[in-house]
C-alpha cells in the first residue's frame, strides 16, 4: 500500500482514506493505493461494507493534472472505478470539500454517495479543455438523466450538495462528523439489505432520451454562443450522446477516444496553462504568504461614478461596509441609483434574493461628508483621471484618514508614485486598477508603487481574495501591464482602417480569433471620451514626426463617445448594443488617410490579426524585461480576465510561444522595416528568438 491511501476498520465498516494534499488528486500513487486498500477491505472478514473518503480539506478533486502529457502509468482510472462498482461488498463514497472530475467519477463508481452539506460536486474538465474521461459522461446521465447531466458536464460549474441531492447524485446529507456519519450510513444500508447499485447497469434514463430526438441539437444550440471557438464543450455533448446510443462498455470506449482527442488538442494545453497561471500569479517572491496583513473591516470609495459604484458593490458583496463619497448630491443620488438598479437586475434574473440585495445595499452608505472616511481601513479613489485632481484627493485623504489606512487609487494610467507624493504615507499608497464593470470583471491589477510596503501589498492581496478577484501584481509605469500593451493594439487597429480595412473587418477578425468583441466595439463600449482626455493630456509631448491617427479624436469632437451616445466607431439604434457601420465614420477615415497621403488598399485578415496581436506580445516582452510583470503567465492572466483574450489560446505570451518566437520576431522585424519605429522588436523577444527559446523558458529560469 502507498502512504497516500490508508485503510482502517471502524466497527463493521472498512474506511479507505485518501491523503494526498493539497487536493487528493488521483496521482499514480493514489490510484495504486486505492486499489490496494480496496483489496484489503474485501479481504477483511470483519468489514461488511466499505467507505471511501478524503483526508484533509477535500474529497478527491480530480485526476492529477500535472501527470497529463506523460504516458499514464497503470492502473487506469477506469479500471479502478470498475473494481469499486464490481465490489461484492457495498461501497459508499463520503464527500466533503470538492468532489470534482475523476473524484466524482470514483464516487459514481460507488454504490451509494453521502456528503456533508458544504460539499460541492462537479465535472470541471471542460474548463481544462477536456471531458470527464473515466466514465463520468456515461454514468451521470444514467444516474440523473440526460437533460440535467448535459449542463453539468459541458458547463463545468460545481453544484452544491443540496442541489446534487435533489438531482439524485448524492443519496444522503450527513450532519456532524463525515466519517461517523458515513460509517453509520453504510451500516444502515447493509442492515436494510440494500442492493449494490451499479450505475453502469441502469439504462432506464438514457433509454428515455432516445425518444427525444433533437435533444442534443437543442443543447448544442443553447451553448453555441458561450462555447464559441471552444473544442471541448461539443465533445462533451458527443460523449453524453454516446451514453444514449451505445451500450455502456462501448460508450466508455467512445468517451476515452473523445477524451484523448481533447487532451491532445492545443486548446487543452492552453487552458491547463491558464489554470496553473492563475494559481501562480498570487506568488510574489518578496511578499511571501506569511507577510502580516492589516484587518479590513470598513472601506470607503471616493467617487460614485461607474467605477466607484462598481467598486463599492464589491465591498458590499463581501459583507464589508463601505462609505461612498461624492462632491454633489445629484451625482451621489445617481450613483446609488445605478447600484440599486444593478442589484435589482440580478434579483430579476434570479441570481440574488431580495433579502440579499437589501443586506448589501444597507452596507453602502452614500455621503457628501469626507469626514465619513476617517475610520475606513482602506479608501479607494475613483475620481476623474487627471493627476492634479488625484493629488488633491490624496492630500485630503491623508489629512482625514487614520494613520493606518491604506490609500488606493483606481487610476488606469497615471503614475502611482507621483500620486503618493501628495501624502505623508507613501508606504500605504497602492494602485488598485479595477476593470469595468468593476462589480462583474474578475481582474484586479494591483500596482506596486516604489514605496508601497509589503504589508500594504499583502493586505490588498487578501482583500482581493475576499472580494473574489483574480489579482495580478504590476509595477508602476504608464498604463501598467494591461493598458500599456493595449495601446499598441488600438493604435494598429486605427492605422489599419486608415490603410483600407473597415472597422467591421478588423472587429470580425479579432472576434473570430476568439475575443468577445473587436477593438472598435470595445472602445465604443468603454467610451471614447476617456482615451480622448488622456491623449489631450499627452499631446504636447507627442513627437510630431510620429504617425498619429486622429480619427478617434474627430469622432469625439462630434460628440460620438461610443454606445452611451448612440454613436462612436459604429452607430447604435436606440436601446440596441449592436454595432452598425456608419458612412460618416467611413468618410472621416478616408479623409484622414488622404490628409496623411496614405493610399488605401485591401488589407488581408492575416495582416489584421498580426498587426493587432503582435504589439501585445512585443510590449509584453518589454514589460517583462523591465520587471513590470513578474512572469509571462501573469500577463496571460491579465489578458484573459481583463481583456477577453480567448482562454483556449492561453493568453498573448503563451500564444506567442505556440507560434514560435522566431516566427513572431521575424514578422515583427518585417513590420518594423515596413512601418517604422512603433515596430522596433523588443530586446527580450530578439534574444529569446535568437536563442531558440520561448517565454515559457523565462518562467523556469
Ligand atoms: C480529471 O479529473 C480527468 C478525469 O475525468 C479523467 C482522467 C482519466 N491536479 O486551486 P488551489 C493544485 S481532470 C494537480 O489553489 P483551492 C493547485 O495547482 C481534473 N494539482 O486550491 C495548487 O497547487 P500550488 C478535474 C492540482 O482550495 C493546489 O493544488 N479537476 C489539482 O482554491 C491548491 O489548489 C479539476 O479540474 C489537480 N487536479 O481550490 C479541479 N487541483 O499550491 C481543479 C489543484 O502548488 N482544481 N491542484 O499552487 C480546482 O478547481 C481547485 O484546485 C480546487 C481547490 C477547487 C480543487
Features:
alpha/beta; N-(1-d-carboxylethyl)-l-norvaline Dehydrogenase, domain 2; Rossmann fold; 701 residues; 3 domains; 2-enoyl-CoA Hydratase, Chain A, domain 1; binds (S)-3-Hydroxyhexanoyl-CoA; single chain
Overall mean pLDDT stands at 96
Structural class: alpha/beta
What fraction of residues sit in β-strands? 5-15%
What number of structural domains do the residues give? 3
Taking all Cα atoms into account, the compactness measure Rg is 28 Å
Q: What would the CATH topology of the largest domain be?
A: 2-enoyl-CoA Hydratase, Chain A, domain 1
Q: Which segments are poorly predicted (pLDDT under 50) over 5 or more consecutive residues?
A: none
Give the neighbour order of strands across the main sheet: 12-11-10-13-14-15-16-17
Written overview of the protein:
It is a single chain. The chain is built from 30 helices and 17 strands. It is α/β, with parallel strands linked by helices and 701 residues long. The strands form three sheets. Strands 12-11-10-13-14-15-16-17 form an eight-stranded mixed sheet, sandwiched between helices. Strands 1-2-3-4-6-9 form a six-stranded mixed sheet, sandwiched between helices. The protein has a three-stranded mixed sheet with strand order 5-7-8. The model has no long low-confidence stretch (mean pLDDT 96). The structure holds (S)-3-Hydroxyhexanoyl-CoA (3H9). (S)-3-Hydroxyhexanoyl-CoA (3H9) binds next to β5, α3 and α12.
Amino acid at each position: 500500500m502507498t502512504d497516500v491511501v490508508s485503510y482502517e476498520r471502524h466497527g463493521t465498516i472498512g474506511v479507505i482514506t485518501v491523503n494526498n494534499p493539497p487536493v487528493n488528486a488521483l496521482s499514480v500513487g493514489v490510484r495504486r493505493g486505492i486499489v490496494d486498500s480496496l483489496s484489503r477491505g474485501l479481504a477483511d472478514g470483519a468489514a461488511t461494507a466499505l467507505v471511501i473518503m478524503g483526508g484533509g480539506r477535500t474529497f478527491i478533486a480530480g485526476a492529477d493534472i500535472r501527470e497529463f502529457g506523460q504516458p499514464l502509468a497503470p492502473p487506469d482510472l477506469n479500471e479502478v472505478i470498475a473494481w469499486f462498482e464490481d465490489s461484492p461488498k457495498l461501497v459508499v463514497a463520503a464527500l466533503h470539500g470538492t468532489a470534482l472530475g475523476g473524484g466524482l467519477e470514483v464516487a459514481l463508481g460507488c454504490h451509494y454517495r453521502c456528503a456533508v452539506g458544504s460539499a460541492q460536486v462537479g465535472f470541471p474538465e471542460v474548463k481544462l479543455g477536456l471531458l470527464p474521461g473515466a466514465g463520468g459522461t456515461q454514468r451521470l446521465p444514467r444516474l440523473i438523466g440526460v437533460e440535467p447531466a448535459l449542463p453539468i458536464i459541458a458547463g463545468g460549474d460545481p453544484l452544491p450538495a443540496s442541489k446534487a441531492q435533489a438531482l439524485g447524485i448524492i443519496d444522503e446529507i450527513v450532519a456532524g462528523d463525515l466519517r461517523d456519519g458515513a460509517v453509520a450510513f453504510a451500516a444502515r444500508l447493509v442492515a436494510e439489505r440494500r442492493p449494490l447499485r451499479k450505475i453502469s447497469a441502469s439504462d432506464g434514463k438514457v433509454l428515455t432520451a432516445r425518444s427525444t430526438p433533437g435533444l442534443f441539437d437543442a443543447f448544442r444550440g443553447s451553448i453555441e454562443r458561450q462555447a464559441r471557438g471552444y473544442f471541448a464543450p461539443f465533445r462533451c455533448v458527443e460523449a453524453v450522446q454516446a451514453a444514449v446510443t451505445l451500450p455502456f462498455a462501448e460508450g466508455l470506449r467512445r468517451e476515452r477516444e473523445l477524451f484523448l482527442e481533447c487532451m491532445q488538442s492545443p486548446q487543452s494545453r492552453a487552458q491547463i496553462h491558464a489554470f496553473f497561471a492563475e494559481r501562480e500569479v498570487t506568488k510574489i517572491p518578496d511578499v511571501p504568504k506569511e507577510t502580516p496583513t492589516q484587518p479590513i473591516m470598513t472601506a470607503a470609495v471616493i467617487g460614485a461614478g461607474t467605477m466607484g459604484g462598481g467598486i463599492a458593490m464589491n465591498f458590499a458583496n463581501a459583507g464589508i461596509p463601505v462609505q461612498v463619497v461624492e462632491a454633489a448630491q445629484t451625482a451621489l443620488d445617481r450613483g446609488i441609483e445605478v447600484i440599486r438598479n444593478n442589484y435589482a437586475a440580478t434579483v430579476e434574473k434570479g441570481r440574488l434574493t431580495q433579502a440579499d440585495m437589501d443586506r448589501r445595499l444597507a452596507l453602502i452608505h452614500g455621503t457628501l461628508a469626507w469626514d465619513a472616511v476617517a475610520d475606513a481601513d482602506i479608501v479607494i479613489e475613483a475620481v476623474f483621471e487627471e493627476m492634479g485632481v488625484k493629488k488633491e484627493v490624496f492630500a485630503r485623504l491623508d489629512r482625514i484618514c487614520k494613520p493606518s489606512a491604506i490609500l488606493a487609487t483606481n487610476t488606469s494610467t497615471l503614475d502611482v508614485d507621483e500620486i503618493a507624493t501628495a501624502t505623508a504615507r507613501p508606504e500605504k499608497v497602492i494602485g488598485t486598477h479595477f476593470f469595468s464593470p468593476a462589480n462583474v470583471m474578475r481582474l484586479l491589477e494591483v500596482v506596486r508603487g516604489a514605496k508601497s510596503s509589503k504589508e500594504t501589498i499583502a493586505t490588498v492581496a487578501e482583500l482581493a481574495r475576499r472580494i473574489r478577484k483574480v489579482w495580478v501584481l504590476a509595477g508602476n509605469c504608464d498604463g501598467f501591464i494591461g493598458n500599456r500593451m493595449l495601446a499598441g493594439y488600438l493604435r494598429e487597429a486605427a492605422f489599419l482602417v486608415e490603410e483600407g480595412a473597415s472597422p467591421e473587418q478588423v472587429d470580425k477578425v479579432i472576434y473570430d480569433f476568439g475575443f468577445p468583441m473587436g477593438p472598435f466595439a470595445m472602445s465604443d463600449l468603454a467610451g471614447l471620451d476617456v482615451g480622448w482626455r488622456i491623449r489631450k493630456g499627452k499631446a504636447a509631448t507627442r513627437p510630431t514626426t510620429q504617425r498619429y491617427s486622429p480619427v478617434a479624436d474627430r469622432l469625439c469632437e462630434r460628440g460620438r463617445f461610443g454606445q452611451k451616445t448612440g454613436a462612436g466607431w459604429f452607430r447604435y439604434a436606440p436601446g440596441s448594443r449592436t454595432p452598425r457601420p456608419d458612412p460618416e465614420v467611413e468618410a472621416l477615415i478616408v479623409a484622414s488617410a488622404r490628409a496623411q497621403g496614405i493610399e488605401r488598399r485591401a488589407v488581408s485578415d492575416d495582416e489584421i490579426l498580426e498587426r493587432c496581436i503582435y504589439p501585445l506580445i512585443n510590449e509584453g516582452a518589454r514589460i517583462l524585461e523591465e520587471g513590470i510583470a513578474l512572469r509571462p503567465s501573469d500577463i496571460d492572466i491579465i489578458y484573459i480576465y481583463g481583456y477577453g483574450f480567448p482562454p483556449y489560446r492561453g493568453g498573448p505570451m503563451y500564444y506567442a510561444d505556440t507560434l514560435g518566437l522566431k516566427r513572431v520576431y521575424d514578422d515583427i522585424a518585417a513590420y518594423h522595416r515596413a512601418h517604422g519605429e512603433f515596430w522596433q522588436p523588443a530586446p527580450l523577444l530578439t534574444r529569446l528568438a535568437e536563442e531558440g527559446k520561448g517565454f515559457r523558458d523565462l518562467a523556469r529560469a
